[in-house]
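Class, carefully examine what follows:
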Amino acid sequence: MTPEEGDAILHDYFAPWIQRLGLRVEETGERHAVVRLPWSDALAREGGGLCGQAMMAAADTATVIAISSARGGFVPMTTVQQSTTFQRPVVGADVLIDVRITKLGRTLAFSEVTLTPDGTSEPAARASTVYAILA
């Protein structure tokens, strides 16, 4: 799957409020994807840091792209579990969301997600997800 096909999935299968996050697929691979969450003052909380809800939604959405890439295209799926740990604030920077599929079964997929501000090597957050594959 190409990044352009990943962008088409974002456009075709996600709610308008997710589309307003402005996510862009940067990279896709056999068992991974990298998605960019552009910085927006509209997503900042008091104090100027990117809100955790936006980062969690972006991580959840990026997982769909990674699973779709691993499966060769979009299939119906749903989140079963997501656990996120925030390590440092993000201020004034895009976030790169790197999703690695750790197990891809017939009905479940597991992933590890790293959220890193663009231009740094220190993650701002880490997440793990479990998805049910419905088709």
User: Anything to note?
Assistant: Residues 52-71 form the longest helix (20 residues). Strands lie at 24-28, 32-37, 77-86, 95-104, 108-117, 125-133. The mean pLDDT is 97.
